[in-house]
Every structure is written in C-alpha cells, then in structure tokens.
C-alpha cells in the first residue's frame, strides 16, 4: 500500500480476471458467454440477488428480429428516432440481429417463444413497426430470456457470477481501465482485468415513476463519466406512454396496442388518430405526450383492451391488473420513465473512449436509438452488442496498478439518509426533467442537483456504503441529463422543449 500526493491510500492487492463484467441483464450475460466461448476466464459482478433485480427481467413486449428484411427494420428504427439514429450503428444491429437471436436464444437457451397453431413462431407487432416481426413469450419475454440465460452463464465452467456485489469505482491509469473496486471489503476490494465491460442498465431510480428496478441508479454511466469517458445523448430519456397510472406502476406492453387495444380519454374518445397518422401505434414519444395532454384535459386516459382476448392472450399483465383491483377492460394509464437512449459513447464493438473499457446495454450509447427508441429493440441491442464486446475484449493480460482504497472511518449515517436525498433528487427530475422541459426549469434543476451532489461528495469521502455510492452515481447522471438538456434547445424525439416562459412558474424543490 502506498500514499498518493493527495493522501488517498492506494493498493495493488486484489484478484484478477481475464474479462470483468459489471451487470447481469441480457447484455452482461451475452458478453460473458461470448468471452467464455473465446477461452477467457470471466468474472461477472451484479448487484442483483434475484433475476427481477435486472431490467431485462422486466421487459415485456419481446425482442425484434428482421424477419428476413433488415432494410425494413432499419427504416423503422430511423423513423422512430425522428431521423437521428446513426445509420452505421443501425446497420450493425440489423445485420447481426437474426443470427444472434437464433444462436443464443433459440439454439443455446431454447427459449420457448410463442407459436401459432401451425407451430411457427407467433410474431407480433408493436408501435412504429411496419411489420409483425417481434418474438415474444406472452408479455413477459424478458423473464423467459433472462432466467435461463443466467442459469446457463452461472453453470459455465469459465464464468463466475458473483451476486450482491457492487462496483464502486473504476481502476484507471493514464487513460486505461484496469478493473474496478468492489464493495466486498470495508474499504473496497480491487479486481483487475484485461478488459472491463459495463452492463449496468438504466436510470429509472432517478424518477418517481419508472418501469425499471429500484436499483437502476446509473452506476456504470457515472463511474465511466468520473473516469473521463465520453458520454452522449443524455437528454434523451424515454417515457413509456402506457404504464399503470396508480401506485406501484407496471408496464402495459405495446404489444397490447399492436394487437388492437386502443387509448381512450376521460370522455371515452379514441384520441390518437388526431395526433399522428399511425394512431395508437405512433412512436413512443408522440404517444406519451398525447396521453399526458389528454389526461390533463379530460382527467384520465385508459387502455381499452376489449378488442383482445385479454385474459387468455396476456395472462401475466391481466394478473397484475386484477391484483390491483382492476376488474374491467379499461386500464388507467400514464407515461412513466422507461429507457435512456444516451449513455457511455461506444463504437460497433462496445469500445468506449477509455482503453480496455467497454459498455453494452442500456448504459451504452451505441447510436442505434438516436432521440427515441423503437419498441422491442432494447433486448436486441443488448444481445448484439454484448456478443460483439465479449468477443473483442478477449486476449489482453490483466495488469495490477495502484487502485484507490476507499475510506470508511466515520460513523454510518442514519438509515434514511440516502433515501431522503433520493426523494429530493426524484422530485427534481420529475418536475423539471420529465416528459417536457423548459430552459428555465432545467437551470433550476441543475442548481438543485449541484448542491445535492456536493453534499453527497462530502459524506462519501470518509464512508464506503453502497447506498451512498448509488446516490452519488444518481446525482452524477442527473447532472449529465440536465447539462445535455440545457445544451439542446431543439425539440427532437423524447427531448421536448417548452419555450413559453408563462408555462414555467414552479419553484424549485425545497432543500431538505
């Protein structure tokens, strides 16, 4: 152990892996599988203790394929992005889509995708898709993919899965990443790797209502940003238009609308044809804003599932509705934070701007989604980029360098300390960085978030606790969203800017 010029302790004691992966969703599992296939010894760290702690497990609708027509899928992706998706990135996705799905999900994991009476796959359609090309299992596809994937990875002789383990800091030296410091010791546990792959998922914990797991605190994005990695497109936070409007929101898959369900306002009117030529199957950003407008004008919006055999065709969603006392065929819905289209900037192999650091899945900005994601492309993007990153990451020898030894010398903070700060952060994000943004309100949010991060930094200097680091990470990501939103004054995709000063009358949240 040595002392740095600033007095921070460093150490090279720790363990070693060929490839280190942080995150256990479809992207992390795909990267682990691909690296192991190439002969690497893989260590996969995950905060999760059960599959539904990962965002993949919460994915409902399905996973898109090209169904033999990659150009059609490419067109739909770019159109849904409001013309902002990177065509080269989209080419990477569509050209590798069907092979990845067949190799991993069909042949290796034998996922039991729904079939029709003829025994062929039952492809469905979702919003902004021009064709039925989405493989699904009921409306719980993520669960049926992730759980066998996790079991397969955990049983692989070259992969170790370590649950309930958080990465706190990246180990860096001269622009190169050498691994992470985990929370497996009171002052941090160094893990060195030839390559490190971040697959930490989304940012739903930054908002009061989200379709993400509660621990989706943007950890990978924050760690990468603090280490100097390039971050892009953080203003593009997608809100799903149809989440249950009551307490404990859950997603009502776009597959419901793809099969005929319709949105109605409080007056019983089907309103989406007035907003977009594609009606109820318009892109998500358009539908989300329309739903919010109609809720404000008429009191509520419901998803009318009478055109479906709801109980028979979507039993998992129907059960969630019945558990919440919804007995009829009209389900109250409201927009809800769903997906971050930006993140850590990566290339077509998941390589970041820092040497030996990769990012895949929702924490990565591949360019595929641009300003708005097309339905059922998130699982596909995670699978394709996970496989490509895992393959590319193999072959570099780990190198032990000085790693920060985190301090843990002050008494623990009260149990509710981090939770109360999170409440303040979420209120700020909901009020000022939600479905619509006003430049003045974005500035107010930035001011509140900067103060919050300053407070957290002061506490974290002498304490090593997962909830504090999650709060630190969430604060960093929130500031990145605010900064990107302030720099983009044009409404595009899911970044919608309201410029009428009369609509900006709210006061910033109190500093509690």
Number of helices: 14
Number of self-contained structural domains: 3
Q: What's the gyration radius in Å?
A: 22 Å
Q: What assembly state would you assign to the polypeptide chains in this entry?
A: single chain
Strand tally is: 19
Low-confidence stretches: 1-9, 501-512
Summarize the structure.
With 512 residues, this protein is an alpha/beta fold.
Describe the structure.
This protein is of the alpha/beta class and 512 residues long. The chain has 3 domains: 9-57 and 140-236 and 341-403, FAD/NAD(P)-binding domain (3-Layer(bba) Sandwich), CATH 3.50.50; 241-337, Alpha-Beta Complex (Flavocytochrome C3, Chain A, domain 1), CATH 3.90.700; 407-503, Methane Monooxygenase Hydroxylase, Chain G, domain 1 (Up-down Bundle), CATH 1.20.58.100. Helix content is 35%, strand content 17%. It is built from 14 helices and 19 strands. The protein has helices at residues 26-37, 55-58, 70-80, 87-108, 141-155, 219-226, 254-258, 284-298, 310-313, 315-323, 378-392, 417-432, 439-460, 466-487; strands at residues 2-3, 9-11, 15-22, 42-45, 63-64, 134-135, 159-162, 167-173, 176-182, 189-198, 231-232, 237-244, 262-265, 301-304, 330-340, 343-345, 357-359, 364-365, 403-404. The strands form 5 sheets. Strands 3, 4, 7, 8, 9, 10 and 17 form a 7-stranded mixed β-sheet that branches. A 4-stranded antiparallel β-sheet has the order 12-15-14-13. Strand 8 and strand 9 (176-182) form a beta hairpin. InterPro entries: FAD-dep_OxRdtase_2_FAD-bd, FAD/NAD-bd_sf, Fum_R/Succ_DH_flav-like_C_sf, NadB, Succ_DH/fumarate_Rdtase_cat_sf. Its EC number is 1.4.3.16.
